[in-house]
Specification:
Elements: H1 2-16, H2 19-28, H3 36-43, H4 49-55, H5 62-73, E1 79-83, H6 87-93, E2 98-103, H7 106-115, E3 122-126, E4 145-150, H8 155-162, E5 166-175, H9 180-187, E6 192-198, E7 207-213
Parallel strand pairs: 1-2, 1-4, 2-3, 4-5
Antiparallel strand pairs: 5-7, 6-7
Helix pairs in contact: 2-3, 4-6
């Protein structure tokens, strides 16, 4: 399955640079944020951080993304903690007062750092998986957050570490929440879940993201 995904991604990236598709991306960047044109352009941006940032999109379910944006609008200067860096880091930085993002892959983090360099309120951390430092990174301070994004590795452990750092009116965005290995943890975490299923950025099939609230 992983080989199939890599092959699909490679084909899409090769096609995305062709004239008609490049023009689609340019038009989509000026189109409605949650409309079909922006979503269609995201299908050509899978695993391409430059194209995703140009489209101003994270790789989440479309409706869940709209919910997160509304939450950030309602909390000016919001503090955000993110597990799993990427185009979403830049998307969050454009809408929040501060973003701390932790990533386990050092080379990928260096690439994200280059893309996020224009945001002085973004802090990027590299933490390894083997020692447990990645999931526990949020415990390195006593801060609480308006939004916590769980969208990287070790998501169950990240969720348990995240909950004590969630502000009373804060939310957790848990991506790919339909996967069976995550359902028990989400169901027993003590937070109310609103699970979205449907159109999702970067993929041609419906997918899940969940918003968890206290």
């Amino acid at each position: 399955m992983q080989l199939v995904k890599q092959s699909y991604s490679g084909i899409v990236q090769a096609v995305a640079g062709l004239g008609p598709f490049a023009r689609l991306a340019e038009r989509a960047a000026r189109s409605a944020p949650y409309g079909l044109e922006r979503w269609a352009a995201s299908l050509l941006a899978i695993h391409d951080i430059d194209r995703m940032i140009a489209l101003d999109l994270p790789w989440w379910n479309v409706a869940a993304t709209r919910d997160v944006e509304a939450h950030l609008r309602a909390h000016p200067g919001a503090r955000v903690f993110e597990y799993g860096s990427g185009a979403s880091t830049a998307w969050l930085a454009a809408r929040a007062g501060s973003v701390t993002s932790v990533e386990h892959h050092a080379d990928w983090l260096r690439k994200v750092a280059g893309k996020a360099s224009s945001f002085d309120h973004v802090t990027l951390w590299h933490r390894d998986l083997e020692s447990g430092a990645y999931a526990a990174a949020i415990d390195e301070s006593d801060e609480t957050y308006d939004l916590i994004v769980v969208d990287g590795r070790e998501r169950v452990a990240c969720l348990w570490h995240a909950i004590p750092h969630l502000r009373p009116d804060g939310v957790i965005l848990f991506d790919d929440s339909g996967r069976s290995r995550y359902r028990s943890a989400i169901g027993t975490c003590g937070l109310a879940e609103r699970r979205y299923f449907g159109r999702s950025y970067c993929v041609p099939y419906p997918d899940h993201s969940s918003i968890l609230r206290g």
